[in-house]
Amino acid sequence: MTLALYHPVPSPVHRAPAGLKLLVLAALGVLLFVVPRLYLVGGALAGVLAVGLGLGGLPVRVLWAQVRPVLIWLAALFVVHLLVTDAATGALAVSRLLTLVLAAAVVTATSRVTELVDVVERICSPLRWVGVRPARIGLVIAMTLRFIPLIAERAARIREAQAARGGARRLTVLVVPLLVQVLQMAHTTAEALDARGADDEPLPRRRRRDR
Amino acid sequence: MTGWRRRGTPAAVAAAVPRTAIEVRRVGHAYGERPVLHDVTLTLAEHRIGVIGGNGSGKSTFARLLNGLVLPTEGQVLVDGLDTRTDLRAVRRRVGFVFQDPDAQIVHPTVAEDVAFGLQNQGVPAEERAVRVAEVLDRYGLAGHADHPAHLLSGGQKQLLAIAGVLVMRPLRVVFDEPTTLLDLANKRRIARVVAELEQDVVVVTHDLDLLAGFDRVVVFAAGRVVADGPPAESVAAYLASMA
Ligand SMILES: Nc1ncnc2c1ncn2[C@@H]1O[C@H](COP(=O)(O)OP(=O)(O)O)[C@@H](O)[C@H]1O
Ligand SMILES: [Mg+2]
Which value does ipTM take for this structure? Predict the structure, then answer.
């Protein structure tokens, strides 16, 4: 399981500012919903593939890895449309969603998490005035991406250990030891954040020229 | 005005204080009602100091006192004269801390981002950050993994990453709490080599007596008290005798 989607290759798409990429992604989303025409969606799909695979130099498997998990939903969506509306509307809805999933995959594969997080922090920076620390929001996102695969891995390890002892495959049997491990780890992580100066930052209006 | 008095040494002054010693003065610590350290007094001035003792003897608590992760409930800890109570930030900048489980202390999804974390907290500008991160990754053989997800590293590499994330902040001292306990033999040796080569003063809590080769001093804890303190050979002998 991997949530670190960044695929480093030198390309103009990688070098483009993450904020710009997110903006284009958002604009594309709005456009495709406001102007639901198949030719437009088809054009956008071709454009996204050209930018990702051509200009961005991403291998097909990187994009495929993002599309594969949603295929079943796309199929289900199409079936629902067949039953409720018609095939043309279904095709439009499915290709629109596929285009956006691919576009999002291109953005995440060509931008570092820190860059994306910086954008989120900038967007959240007005919240400073109500006492929210934008850097904290960014840290939470980064830590979520870091710890989800780790926790999944620990869960798998506990399951293996239990299977080795012929344990039952009941959820509670997994959850309790996992919770204990995660809480223990969270305690250390909190200490590590302290030790690495996560609290050092509260200077108001710190000049952050992050990347 | 009371807030002013509690602030301790001003940052600029604290940063300029020279490295002398960590003084632990008549320190006791209790978690809630439960005392775990009793009347510990030590002056830590040697370059490499080991800390050994049985499980639950208070080693980790002692180690955490040295950078203010744990504050003494009795007595004082002074790092180069800076009190961990009143000069906490300055103390933490001087004393880096490496934990047993690297997974718990890696907080960013990819290698280079995690190393940059501490520098970001210190407000180091992006350009300088990139240079320092690259330097440290190179030194610990992680340069080829800069953009890799941290969770795909081996156990040994994760511990190296954790160490890199601390050293990039250029502390004057580093405290290690059982840095090799979760590692296989080859990686234990690799970390031992890294520790041996550090120019920083180090305090290493460990069960791995090999790690203490070439150390200047070893302190032995039992039931929250210092029971031996001296050259490694003598301290280790006393420790092994007490275990027999
Ligand atoms: N956060 C804590 N809360 C309560 N008790 C603790 C905590 N950390 C450690 N202890 C207890 O303090 C004693 C000393 O622990 P520790 O300093 O971790 O020893 P060591 O590292 O030598 O095993 C142990 O009995 C332990 O159970
Ligand atoms: Mg311990």
Answer: 0.88
